[in-house]
Each structure stands twice: as C-alpha cells, then as structure tokens.
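Example 9 (inverse folding). The structure is encoded as follows.
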C-alpha cells in the first residue's frame, strides 16, 4: 500500500525506517562533517604515553606535553596506586581473566564480595556490571514492560538531555510501551504526564554530562505525589560528591525505595571500569543478572573486580574527602575567575563554553591545545545545532596552581575569540 505518493523509487519506500527515535540519514552526515574538521586540526587520534599522569600527557609523535581536561576521571583515581595494585593482585590471585560465562550461573567469589563491599560503601543494595550502558540496555525495556515494578507497562519519559546510552534504547523501549521525550528539567510537562497516565517512569541524569543538574527536589516531589518511577544516571557525580562518594542524586534520594534506581559508570571518577545500579532492595538482582546484555554479554572481568575493590578501599579512606575537597576548590576558583563569561556549569566540574559555529569550536580547542591544554570540541548532535563549543572538566588531582594557570590561559585565549 502506498502512503507516500511523492516517493518515486519504490525500493526507497520500503527500506526506509520510520525514524521515530533516531535518524542516521540525518545525524551521521552532520556529525561526520564536524569530526572531519576536528581531525584536520589534529584534535583527534592523539596518541600519548600516560606515565606522568593526566596532568602531563605526552603526544608520542610530537613530544608535545599537555594537561588533559577531557578526562572523566575527576579525582584521578584511575592512576591511584591502591587501585592499580588491586587489579594486578586480583589477576595474580585468581589466575584467570574471567570465567567467560553467564554470571547468574557461576561467578567468582570475588565478584560476590564486590557486590557486598559496594553495597556497604553506598549504604544500599548495589548491583555491579561490566558497564553502565549495559545496565541501561538491560533495565529500561523491562522497566517499560512493567517487569521491574511487577505491574502493567509504564509510560517512559526521557529527559531531552538524557545520555546517549539511554536514548539509544528508546526504540526498544518504545516497542514495549509509550515513550515520551520531555523538555529538559520540565517538571510541569512531567506532572501533566503523571496526571494522565497511571504509571510513569522518568529517565534522566543527575549531574548532566554537558553541564547542569537535574531538578532532584522537583522529581522527588512528583514521585511522592504520583508514585512515579525514577531511573537516574549519575555517572558524572559518583565519587565526586557525598561522604562516601555516593553522588549527587543520593543527596536527595537518600533512602532508595522500590521506585528508584540510580545507575552510574565506575569508569569515570570512581577510577575503575564497569557500572553499578543502586536499588532499594536486592530482590530483582537475580532477575537483572539474567536480563538483556547483563545475561548474554561478558560478566565482570577479574581485573575489573580488583580495581573496583581497590577503589572501594580508597573511598573508605580520608583521601576521598581530600580529593573531593581539592576538586571543589578548583571549581570555586574557576567560577570566581570566569564570572560573567558565557560558560555553563557554574558549581560543577563540567564546564561548557558555547562559541556557536563548529569551525570556531575547533579553532578554540586547537589554540588551547597549542598552549598545553586538551579540551573537547563538541558539536551537533551532542549539543543543539549552532551551539558548538568546548567541554572541559576540572579534576581533584589538579593542584590549585595548575588550575590558576589554566584559567589565565583560557581567559587569554577567550579574549581573542569572543
Ligand atoms: C559515560 C556515561 C555512560 C557510559 O558508561 P559506561 O560504564 O562506559 O557504559 C553512561 N551514562 C552517562 C551519563 C555517561 O556519561
């Protein structure tokens, strides 16, 4: 049956997808044009040795040394001796890289211990997995169909700025239930959905990856009023915030119940590799271990179990607070000195400088790199069209002096740009 009268090529009519939640035909060319530009300026495929850490990476082809401001290892735990050593020790002790089978059948005792240690550290049941993206791919379709809540299907509302790892599963989720996209942090939109449908889940981030925070109080009050389910990805504030590094979301969602799941990557500030889900109870753990890629992809590898246990130990030591404190100092310093400039992310370690055109963003990144700082140029579709810019991240393993010098440089470069 013909629904597109203007389509002259019948083959095109039948091979084109409905593009309800994604559109490679449109997105790929836009993205590729920007990446080509970045590549031509030498801002991609930089190969380094990291022997002197993130503050002094060395481009092995040119010898150029630079401070890395594109790393999500916000506390520098990825090179902490305790973390690295724990990974090596786990491999030596277990003598196997991994069991290469489904964890729900057989897993290392060390993996079970990891679950217990993480749960104790974060004060709630914690499910570890190989990545945060894998957890979202496993959970979201089952949340939509009502199998996490043990109810009929839920309407799933994705915040417009929700991370790619969650947006990516939208078409799968939409095959199970109604999917809606809300304007960013729009509590009125969300409340309207809660009034109209009996069961609603909201999918969002805590500290957003391109800067900015979720309206946690607003979300919590909708949860209390309508029983809304909250699926919150807090990858960018795990470890950097909270007495035990439990993150930004847990500052409001302190006690988790059956209507809240907070997930996060442990490959960012946590300094290891993998992902975790924090839940109100462990009753769905067995089910989740068998679900989606958590069931059919690899389980936690031995080295990852080791480095994660090592990072738990650091989280339990005074060093966590010290590094969090230094990060907070660096953020305050940056905000104070950059006040009045068009930079998003005040109060956050993630800063976004909007410059407009792709070409300008690449030129800015290139000049900063020349002066010893790598920041990521970012383009549509990661940010809205015409709002390209650079993203930079401060870290707790940068000294105050390093941050001062960087701010001096950034101001100088921006003065020539904006
Ligand atoms: C980086 C990131 C992820 C991906 O985490 P993995 O553990 O690498 O899958 C997921 N969510 C957000 C918000 C992220 O920034």
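The amino acid assigned to each position is listed next.
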């Amino acid at each position: 049956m013909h629904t597109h009268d203007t389509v002259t090529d019948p083959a095109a009519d039948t091979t084109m997808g409905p593009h309800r939640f994604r559109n490679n035909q449109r997105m790929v060319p836009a993205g590729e044009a920007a990446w080509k530009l970045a590549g031509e300026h030498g801002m991609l495929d930089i190969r380094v040795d990291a022997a002197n850490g993130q503050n002094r990476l060395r481009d092995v082809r040119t010898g150029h040394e630079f401070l890395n401001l594109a790393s999500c290892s916000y506390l520098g735990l990825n090179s902490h001796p305790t973390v690295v050593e724990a990974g090596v020790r786990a491999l030596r002790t277990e003598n196997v890289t991994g069991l290469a089978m489904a964890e729900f059948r057989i897993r290392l005792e060390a993996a079970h211990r990891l679950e217990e240690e993480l749960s104790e550290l974060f004060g709630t049941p914690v499910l570890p997995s190989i990545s945060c993206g894998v957890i979202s791919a496993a959970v979201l379709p089952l949340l939509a169909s009502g199998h996490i809540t043990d109810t009929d299907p839920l309407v799933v509302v994705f915040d417009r700025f929700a991370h790619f790892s969650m947006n990516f599963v939208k078409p799968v989720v939409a095959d199970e239930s109604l999917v809606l996209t809300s304007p960013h942090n729009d509590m009125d939109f969300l409340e309207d959905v809660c009034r109209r449908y009996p069961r609603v889940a909201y999918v969002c981030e805590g500290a957003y990856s391109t800067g900015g925070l979720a309206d946690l109080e607003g979300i919590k009050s909708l949860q209390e009023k309508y029983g809304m389910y909250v699926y919150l990805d807090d990858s960018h504030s795990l470890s950097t915030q909270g007495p035990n590094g439990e993150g930004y979301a847990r500052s409001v969602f302190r006690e988790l119940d059956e209507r809240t799941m907070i997930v996060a990557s442990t490959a960012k500030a946590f300094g290891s590799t993998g992902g975790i889900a924090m839940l109100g109870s462990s009753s769905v753990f067995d089910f989740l271990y068998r679900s989606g890629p958590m069931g059919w992809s690899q389980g936690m590898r031995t080295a990852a179990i080791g480095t994660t246990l090592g990072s738990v130990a650091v989280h339990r030591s005074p060093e966590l607070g010290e590094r969090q404190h230094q990060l907070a100092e660096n953020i305050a310093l940056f905000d104070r000195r950059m006040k009045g400039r068009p930079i998003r992310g005040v109060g956050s370690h993630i800063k976004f400088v909007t410059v407009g055109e792709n070409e300008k963003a690449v030129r800015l990144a290139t000049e900063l790199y020349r002066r010893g700082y790598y920041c990521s140029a970012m383009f549509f579709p990661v940010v809205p069209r015409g709002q390209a810019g650079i993203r930079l991240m401060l870290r707790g393993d940068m000294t105050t002096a390093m941050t001062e010098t960087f701010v001096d440089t950034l101001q100088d470069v921006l003065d020539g740009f904006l």
